[in-house]
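User: Can you predict the 3D structure of diguanylate cyclase? Sequence below.
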Amino acid sequence: MPLATQDAHAFHFLVDMLESVEIGLVVLDLEFKVQLWNGFMENHSGLTSTAVREQNIFLLFPELPATWLKRKIDTVVMLNTRAFTSWELRPYLFRFGSSRPITGTSPYMYQNVTISPLAEPDGSIKRVSLMVYDVTDVACSRIELEQANAQLNCLSKTDNLTKLLNRGAWESHLNSEFERFRRYGHDCTLIMLDIDNFKRVNDQYGHQVGDDVIRHLAETMRACLRSTDHLGRYGGEEFAIILPETSLEGACVIAERLRQTIAQAEVRSHNANVSYTVSLGLATLHKQTASSQQWLRQADEALYAAKHAGRNQVLCAGL
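Assistant: Sure. Here are the predicted C-alpha coordinates for diguanylate cyclase:
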Protein backbone atom coordinates (compact mmCIF):
# COMPACT_ATOMS: atom_id res chain seq x y z
CA MET A 1 0.00 0.00 0.00
CA PRO A 2 1.49 3.41 -1.00
CA LEU A 3 2.57 5.67 1.86
CA ALA A 4 0.03 8.33 0.94
CA THR A 5 -2.75 5.75 1.11
CA GLN A 6 -1.50 4.52 4.50
CA ASP A 7 -1.47 8.09 5.78
CA ALA A 8 -5.01 8.64 4.54
CA HIS A 9 -6.22 5.47 6.28
CA ALA A 10 -4.46 6.47 9.52
CA PHE A 11 -5.96 9.95 9.37
CA HIS A 12 -9.44 8.55 8.73
CA PHE A 13 -9.05 6.15 11.67
CA LEU A 14 -7.91 9.00 13.94
CA VAL A 15 -10.82 11.26 12.95
CA ASP A 16 -13.29 8.42 13.42
CA MET A 17 -11.89 7.70 16.88
CA LEU A 18 -12.08 11.35 17.95
CA GLU A 19 -15.69 11.55 16.84
CA SER A 20 -16.82 8.39 18.61
CA VAL A 21 -14.86 8.53 21.89
CA GLU A 22 -16.98 9.24 25.01
CA ILE A 23 -14.84 12.22 25.98
CA GLY A 24 -15.41 15.81 24.99
CA LEU A 25 -12.52 17.13 22.91
CA VAL A 26 -12.14 20.83 22.10
CA VAL A 27 -9.11 22.46 20.47
CA LEU A 28 -8.71 26.22 20.85
CA ASP A 29 -6.16 28.59 19.34
CA LEU A 30 -4.62 31.31 21.49
CA GLU A 31 -7.44 33.68 20.59
CA PHE A 32 -9.84 31.13 22.11
CA LYS A 33 -11.35 30.27 18.74
CA VAL A 34 -12.60 26.71 18.25
CA GLN A 35 -10.44 24.59 15.93
CA LEU A 36 -11.89 21.18 16.75
CA TRP A 37 -15.23 20.11 18.26
CA ASN A 38 -15.83 16.38 18.43
CA GLY A 39 -19.02 14.33 18.45
CA PHE A 40 -19.33 14.27 22.25
CA MET A 41 -19.39 18.07 22.33
CA GLU A 42 -21.88 18.19 19.44
CA ASN A 43 -24.23 15.73 21.15
CA HIS A 44 -24.26 17.49 24.52
CA SER A 45 -24.12 21.12 23.39
CA GLY A 46 -26.48 20.87 20.43
CA LEU A 47 -23.95 22.80 18.32
CA THR A 48 -22.31 21.22 15.28
CA SER A 49 -18.64 21.36 14.54
CA THR A 50 -19.35 23.52 11.48
CA ALA A 51 -21.35 26.02 13.56
CA VAL A 52 -18.64 26.54 16.17
CA ARG A 53 -15.47 26.38 14.08
CA GLU A 54 -13.44 29.63 14.25
CA GLN A 55 -15.93 31.02 16.78
CA ASN A 56 -14.78 32.45 20.11
CA ILE A 57 -15.62 29.93 22.82
CA PHE A 58 -16.66 32.67 25.28
CA LEU A 59 -19.13 34.13 22.79
CA LEU A 60 -20.58 30.68 22.16
CA PHE A 61 -20.86 29.96 25.90
CA PRO A 62 -21.17 33.22 27.87
CA GLU A 63 -21.66 31.25 31.09
CA LEU A 64 -18.10 29.89 30.96
CA PRO A 65 -15.84 31.15 33.80
CA ALA A 66 -13.83 33.31 31.41
CA THR A 67 -11.29 34.76 33.87
CA TRP A 68 -10.55 31.37 35.41
CA LEU A 69 -10.30 29.50 32.10
CA LYS A 70 -8.11 32.13 30.43
CA ARG A 71 -5.75 32.05 33.40
CA LYS A 72 -5.57 28.25 33.20
CA ILE A 73 -4.87 28.32 29.47
CA ASP A 74 -2.20 31.03 29.85
CA THR A 75 -0.44 28.89 32.47
CA VAL A 76 -0.59 25.81 30.23
CA VAL A 77 0.92 27.73 27.29
CA MET A 78 3.56 29.51 29.38
CA LEU A 79 4.77 26.41 31.24
CA ASN A 80 4.07 23.93 28.44
CA THR A 81 2.39 21.57 30.91
CA ARG A 82 -1.04 20.14 31.55
CA ALA A 83 -3.59 21.55 33.97
CA PHE A 84 -6.47 19.73 35.59
CA THR A 85 -9.69 20.55 37.38
CA SER A 86 -12.08 18.13 39.06
CA TRP A 87 -15.78 18.24 39.77
CA GLU A 88 -15.08 18.63 43.51
CA LEU A 89 -13.48 22.03 42.82
CA ARG A 90 -15.77 23.09 39.96
CA PRO A 91 -18.81 20.90 39.24
CA TYR A 92 -18.65 21.53 35.50
CA LEU A 93 -16.98 23.67 32.83
CA PHE A 94 -19.70 23.40 30.18
CA ARG A 95 -23.20 23.37 31.65
CA PHE A 96 -24.52 20.32 29.84
CA GLY A 97 -27.67 18.52 30.90
CA SER A 98 -27.29 15.18 32.64
CA SER A 99 -26.93 12.29 30.22
CA ARG A 100 -29.02 10.19 32.64
CA PRO A 101 -32.18 12.33 33.09
CA ILE A 102 -34.33 9.39 34.30
CA THR A 103 -32.00 7.48 36.62
CA GLY A 104 -29.71 10.37 37.49
CA THR A 105 -30.03 12.61 40.52
CA SER A 106 -28.30 15.67 39.05
CA PRO A 107 -29.80 18.16 36.58
CA TYR A 108 -26.40 18.71 34.95
CA MET A 109 -23.31 16.76 33.97
CA TYR A 110 -20.45 16.72 36.49
CA GLN A 111 -17.12 17.05 34.67
CA ASN A 112 -13.40 16.60 35.12
CA VAL A 113 -11.35 18.65 32.67
CA THR A 114 -7.77 18.34 31.40
CA ILE A 115 -6.17 21.24 29.51
CA SER A 116 -3.11 20.28 27.45
CA PRO A 117 -0.69 22.29 25.27
CA LEU A 118 -0.45 21.27 21.59
CA ALA A 119 3.03 21.82 20.17
CA GLU A 120 3.75 22.82 16.56
CA PRO A 121 6.59 21.10 14.64
CA ASP A 122 8.92 23.91 15.74
CA GLY A 123 7.97 23.38 19.39
CA SER A 124 5.88 26.51 19.77
CA ILE A 125 2.48 26.33 21.46
CA LYS A 126 -0.30 27.81 19.36
CA ARG A 127 -3.23 25.65 20.43
CA VAL A 128 -4.54 23.90 23.51
CA SER A 129 -6.91 20.98 23.91
CA LEU A 130 -9.69 20.68 26.48
CA MET A 131 -10.67 17.11 27.35
CA VAL A 132 -14.03 16.97 29.13
CA TYR A 133 -14.86 13.81 31.07
CA ASP A 134 -18.41 12.95 32.17
CA VAL A 135 -18.06 11.86 35.82
CA THR A 136 -21.72 12.28 36.79
CA ASP A 137 -22.07 8.71 38.10
CA VAL A 138 -19.01 9.00 40.32
CA ALA A 139 -19.98 12.47 41.58
CA CYS A 140 -23.59 11.54 42.35
CA SER A 141 -22.50 8.38 44.17
CA ARG A 142 -20.01 10.37 46.24
CA ILE A 143 -22.58 13.07 47.06
CA GLU A 144 -25.22 10.48 48.02
CA LEU A 145 -22.71 8.70 50.27
CA GLU A 146 -21.69 11.95 51.96
CA GLN A 147 -25.34 12.89 52.48
CA ALA A 148 -26.08 9.48 53.96
CA ASN A 149 -23.09 9.74 56.28
CA ALA A 150 -24.15 13.22 57.35
CA GLN A 151 -27.67 11.96 58.04
CA LEU A 152 -26.34 9.04 60.06
CA ASN A 153 -24.09 11.39 62.00
CA CYS A 154 -27.06 13.64 62.74
CA LEU A 155 -29.20 10.68 63.80
CA SER A 156 -26.48 9.47 66.14
CA LYS A 157 -26.65 12.80 67.98
CA THR A 158 -30.38 13.44 67.84
CA ASP A 159 -33.27 12.25 69.97
CA ASN A 160 -35.75 10.59 67.63
CA LEU A 161 -38.93 11.93 69.29
CA THR A 162 -37.98 15.58 69.83
CA LYS A 163 -35.16 16.10 67.30
CA LEU A 164 -33.19 17.72 70.12
CA LEU A 165 -29.70 16.58 71.07
CA ASN A 166 -29.69 13.18 72.70
CA ARG A 167 -28.06 12.72 76.09
CA GLY A 168 -24.65 11.70 74.79
CA ALA A 169 -24.40 14.57 72.33
CA TRP A 170 -25.68 17.09 74.86
CA GLU A 171 -23.16 15.95 77.49
CA SER A 172 -20.38 16.60 74.96
CA HIS A 173 -21.53 20.23 74.85
CA LEU A 174 -21.70 20.27 78.66
CA ASN A 175 -18.05 19.20 78.91
CA SER A 176 -16.98 21.64 76.18
CA GLU A 177 -18.69 24.60 77.87
CA PHE A 178 -17.14 23.67 81.23
CA GLU A 179 -13.66 23.58 79.66
CA ARG A 180 -14.34 26.89 77.91
CA PHE A 181 -15.30 28.43 81.26
CA ARG A 182 -12.11 27.17 82.88
CA ARG A 183 -10.08 28.75 80.09
CA TYR A 184 -11.90 32.06 79.55
CA GLY A 185 -14.18 32.51 82.58
CA HIS A 186 -17.21 33.47 80.51
CA ASP A 187 -20.67 33.25 82.10
CA CYS A 188 -22.56 30.04 81.43
CA THR A 189 -25.72 28.72 83.09
CA LEU A 190 -27.33 25.31 83.02
CA ILE A 191 -31.07 24.60 83.22
CA MET A 192 -32.53 21.21 84.06
CA LEU A 193 -36.31 20.92 83.65
CA ASP A 194 -38.85 18.16 84.11
CA ILE A 195 -42.52 17.84 83.15
CA ASP A 196 -44.63 17.87 86.32
CA ASN A 197 -46.73 14.76 87.01
CA PHE A 198 -45.98 13.36 83.58
CA LYS A 199 -47.02 9.85 84.65
CA ARG A 200 -50.56 11.14 85.14
CA VAL A 201 -50.62 12.38 81.55
CA ASN A 202 -49.61 8.93 80.25
CA ASP A 203 -52.02 7.13 82.58
CA GLN A 204 -54.97 9.39 81.76
CA TYR A 205 -54.50 10.01 78.04
CA GLY A 206 -52.08 7.32 76.84
CA HIS A 207 -48.48 7.31 75.67
CA GLN A 208 -49.25 8.81 72.25
CA VAL A 209 -50.62 11.93 73.92
CA GLY A 210 -47.64 11.88 76.26
CA ASP A 211 -45.33 11.85 73.24
CA ASP A 212 -47.18 14.87 71.81
CA VAL A 213 -46.69 16.72 75.10
CA ILE A 214 -42.95 15.99 74.98
CA ARG A 215 -42.78 17.19 71.36
CA HIS A 216 -44.70 20.34 72.30
CA LEU A 217 -42.20 21.08 75.05
CA ALA A 218 -39.29 20.64 72.63
CA GLU A 219 -40.88 23.00 70.10
CA THR A 220 -41.63 25.57 72.82
CA MET A 221 -38.02 25.50 73.99
CA ARG A 222 -36.77 26.03 70.46
CA ALA A 223 -39.10 29.01 70.05
CA CYS A 224 -38.12 30.61 73.37
CA LEU A 225 -34.36 30.06 73.23
CA ARG A 226 -31.46 31.21 71.07
CA SER A 227 -29.85 29.23 68.27
CA THR A 228 -26.59 29.29 70.25
CA ASP A 229 -28.16 27.54 73.26
CA HIS A 230 -27.72 23.78 73.56
CA LEU A 231 -31.02 21.92 74.06
CA GLY A 232 -31.11 18.23 74.88
CA ARG A 233 -33.46 15.51 76.00
CA TYR A 234 -31.71 14.13 79.06
CA GLY A 235 -34.05 11.18 79.57
CA GLY A 236 -37.78 10.46 79.64
CA GLU A 237 -39.55 13.73 80.47
CA GLU A 238 -36.37 15.45 81.67
CA PHE A 239 -34.60 18.05 79.53
CA ALA A 240 -31.43 20.09 79.80
CA ILE A 241 -30.40 23.49 78.41
CA ILE A 242 -26.97 25.13 78.34
CA LEU A 243 -27.05 28.93 78.05
CA PRO A 244 -23.59 30.16 76.98
CA GLU A 245 -22.63 33.76 77.77
CA THR A 246 -25.56 33.99 80.21
CA SER A 247 -25.41 35.00 83.87
CA LEU A 248 -27.61 33.41 86.51
CA GLU A 249 -29.83 36.51 86.59
CA GLY A 250 -30.31 36.43 82.83
CA ALA A 251 -30.96 32.69 82.89
CA CYS A 252 -33.63 33.16 85.58
CA VAL A 253 -35.49 35.57 83.29
CA ILE A 254 -35.28 33.08 80.39
CA ALA A 255 -36.37 30.17 82.57
CA GLU A 256 -39.32 32.06 84.04
CA ARG A 257 -40.49 33.13 80.58
CA LEU A 258 -40.27 29.52 79.41
CA ARG A 259 -42.19 28.28 82.49
CA GLN A 260 -44.99 30.79 81.94
CA THR A 261 -45.25 30.04 78.21
CA ILE A 262 -45.66 26.33 78.92
CA ALA A 263 -48.12 26.85 81.78
CA GLN A 264 -50.35 28.96 79.52
CA ALA A 265 -50.25 26.54 76.58
CA GLU A 266 -52.62 23.72 75.72
CA VAL A 267 -51.70 20.65 73.69
CA ARG A 268 -54.39 19.30 71.35
CA SER A 269 -53.79 15.59 70.83
CA HIS A 270 -56.05 12.64 69.95
CA ASN A 271 -59.24 14.59 70.79
CA ALA A 272 -57.82 15.66 74.15
CA ASN A 273 -56.80 19.11 75.37
CA VAL A 274 -53.87 18.73 77.73
CA SER A 275 -52.32 21.42 79.91
CA TYR A 276 -49.07 20.79 81.73
CA THR A 277 -46.35 22.55 83.69
CA VAL A 278 -42.63 22.16 84.22
CA SER A 279 -40.23 22.64 87.09
CA LEU A 280 -36.80 24.13 86.41
CA GLY A 281 -33.51 24.09 88.29
CA LEU A 282 -30.61 26.43 87.42
CA ALA A 283 -26.91 26.40 88.20
CA THR A 284 -24.25 28.78 86.95
CA LEU A 285 -20.55 28.07 86.74
CA HIS A 286 -18.22 29.37 89.47
CA LYS A 287 -14.50 29.08 90.04
CA GLN A 288 -15.38 26.63 92.82
CA THR A 289 -17.16 24.28 90.37
CA ALA A 290 -14.81 21.31 90.21
CA SER A 291 -16.22 19.48 87.20
CA SER A 292 -19.00 19.41 84.64
CA GLN A 293 -20.64 16.61 86.62
CA GLN A 294 -20.72 18.78 89.74
CA TRP A 295 -22.29 21.56 87.69
CA LEU A 296 -24.91 19.08 86.46
CA ARG A 297 -25.62 17.84 90.00
CA GLN A 298 -26.15 21.40 91.22
CA ALA A 299 -28.77 22.07 88.53
CA ASP A 300 -30.39 18.69 89.16
CA GLU A 301 -30.61 19.36 92.91
CA ALA A 302 -32.21 22.75 92.20
CA LEU A 303 -34.72 21.01 89.91
CA TYR A 304 -35.77 18.53 92.57
CA ALA A 305 -35.96 21.31 95.15
CA ALA A 306 -38.42 23.07 92.79
CA LYS A 307 -40.50 19.90 92.58
CA HIS A 308 -40.52 19.40 96.35
CA ALA A 309 -41.49 23.05 96.82
CA GLY A 310 -44.71 22.54 94.84
CA ARG A 311 -43.68 22.23 91.15
CA ASN A 312 -44.29 24.72 88.32
CA GLN A 313 -41.52 27.03 89.49
CA VAL A 314 -37.90 28.03 88.93
CA LEU A 315 -35.23 27.56 91.59
CA CYS A 316 -31.54 28.42 91.40
CA ALA A 317 -28.71 26.50 93.01
CA GLY A 318 -27.06 28.41 95.88
CA LEU A 319 -29.96 30.83 96.34
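The longest helix spans residues 136-157. The radius of gyration is 33 Å.
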